[in-house]
Amino acid sequence: MSNAQNYKFAGKTAFITGAGSGIGRATAFAFADAGANVAVVDINPTAAAETVKRIEESGGKATSIACDVTNSDQVKAAVDRCVQAFGALNFAFNNAGIEQGVVPLTEVSEELFDRLFAINVKGVYLCMKHQIPVMDKSGGGVIVNTASTAGVLSIRNQGSYCATKYAVVALTKSTALEVAGAKIRINALCPGITDTPMIERVSGGTEEGRTRLIGQEPVGRFARPEEMARATMWLCSDDGAFITGAALNIDGGQSAGIG
Ligand code: NAD
Prior knowledge:
Layout: E1 13-17, H1 22-33, E2 37-42, H2 45-57, E3 61-66, H3 72-86, E4 91-94, H4 110-137, E5 141-146, H5 159-179, E6 184-191, H6 197-203, H7 207-214, H8 225-236, E7 247-250
Bound molecules: nicotinamide-adenine-dinucleotide.
């Protein structure tokens, strides 16, 4: 599935939200390939079950957990189930998120605005709120929250989505300061345009739509979800031991400037 041989996470447990699709699924595969037990968390139980099935077919260990990250009780239950299943919570990738269409702010409904904040921001807050005490009790851990290039760079016709991702970066940095002394590291991953079902929807799934989006990437291509998985594993590994409170751009130069 992925080229994860140089990460050794045997005996470790990773909790991954949005693991039924795209970046989350690729990261679940990568952690499993590296030997970790994976809690595959998603609002879509069928998609989560498919991720688990594919991990098990490759000899990995995973369990699917249906959970809406906007619901505190469900998030707490998901974290508890992960610990019950695997005895630990070493890594958390709080990655579930939704997009908005490419439209000006005046065309974003209040309902969508609220939903964007509920999933993209409150979901990350709730995950960290329930993960930190567990990690603290067991002597530490690593959290990676998925922000976006849209969390470090303003994008026309993406104002509401950008606002959620700037918020993820702020939550990440502030919380990292709070728990640095407890051996818990927290970083934000800021992906550029990554070839997932989300981008299929944003591009409209047409060649013209994809070409328009690729035009926003200085390197002239989309990222592969596996590239986000590897960056996340690096942040979680001991190679990332001195990295906390960072927002890591993995974006083909998209956030570097105009040119
Ligand atoms: P995706 O749509 O392929 O996958 C998102 C997953 O999140 C789905 O499986 C979905 O069921 C799940 N999900 C949605 N709402 C949920 C909820 N309330 N509770 C639990 N799970 C929920 O998207 P993706 O491209 O893999 O995006 C993953 C993350 O990366 C998102 O936070 C997104 O904003 C971010 N991101 C994506 C890109 C990109 O270009 N694809 C770029 C930057 C950031």
